[in-house]
Design a protein that fits this description.
Keywords: Membrane, Transmembrane, Transmembrane helix. It comes from Boudabousia tangfeifanii. This is DUF4191 domain-containing protein. This protein is an alpha+beta fold and 231 residues long. It has two domains: 75 residues, no CATH class; 136 residues, no CATH class. Helix content is 49%, strand content 11%. It is built from eight helices and five strands. Strands 1, 2, 3, 4 and 5 form a five-stranded mixed sheet that branches. A hairpin with a 5-residue loop joins strand 2 and strand 3. Helix 1 packs across helix 3 and helix 2 runs antiparallel to helix 3. It starts with 14 loop residues before the first helix and ends with a helix.
Length: 231
């Protein structure tokens, strides 16, 4: 008898699945989130019931209060989502890659770091209309040299393209994770939309440095699992 080779289709995700995931992520950082939602429900919904009874609108006011309470909780969850995510991945190798994956509009972002060292120092290369942005992960005394070496490699293949250097971290002169996206947006545009992919193709010829990488590690296959970072 022939085996059943039909592949089970993944379950379709509904909006409430995303809300549940967002709540779980935020609550992991802000453990008081459930109590805050409860307080909003008691104050807003309870107040609407009391107001409805007092004014004689004992149906419309409670319904409006319920919707308002849900809206306030949703806004609260949205505001806390990014800070919670940054707090959970801050300091972990690949944190910059996780943030860059959320900034894909107008940028060419690779899952693979341009530079990887045995100390887990990383350099990410991002290409957009402001030019090429090199972002490091690691202590300043180690990544400064890495950034300069990568800048020279990029300059050889794209001598007229602006190159911006960013050090992610908490030391003097470094940029913390929550401000990374803002820093990318602060650069002025220097390339056209057509030039961005052309620069990316030109820089694809750069071979990542192998010095300092443990034997058996292929820098072209070092990838950051965004799914594990968000969890």
């Amino acid at each position: 008898m022939a085996e059943n080779t039909e592949i089970e289709k993944p379950k379709k995700r509904r909006f409430y699945h995303n809300l549940k995931d967002a709540y779980t992520l935020v609550q992991r950082t802000y453990t008081w989130l459930g109590w805050a939602f409860l307080a909003v429900a008691v104050v807003v919904f309870g107040g609407s019931i009391a107001l409805g009874v007092a004014t004689g609108h004992w149906i419309s006011y409670p319904i409006s209060g319920l919707l308002l309470a849900a809206l306030i909780c949703l806004i609260f969850l949205t505001v806390l989502l990014n800070p919670a995510l940054y707090a959970q991945i801050d300091g972990r190798p690949g944190a910059v890659g996780a943030v860059l994956s959320r900034q894909s509009k107008g940028w060419i972002v690779s899952d693979t770091p341009a530079v990887v060292t045995r100390d887990q120092d990383l350099v990410w290369r991002v290409i957009g209309r402001p030019g090429v942005v090199l972002i490091s992960e690691g202590p300043a005394h180690r990544v400064t040299k890495l950034l300069e070496e990568e800048r020279r490699r990029v300059k050889r293949l794209a001598p007229t393209v602006p190159i911006h250097l960013i050090q992610y971290g908490h030391e003097d002169g470094q940029i913390p994770l929550p401000k990374l996206a803002k820093q990318l947006r602060s650069y002025k545009k220097a390339l056209t939309k057509q030039e961005v992919p052309a620069v990316d193709r030109r820089l694809a010829a750069i071979k990542p440095p192998t010095a300092g990488i443990p034997k058996g590690v292929d820098p072209n296959k070092v990838r950051v699992s965004k799914k594990s970072m968000y969890r």
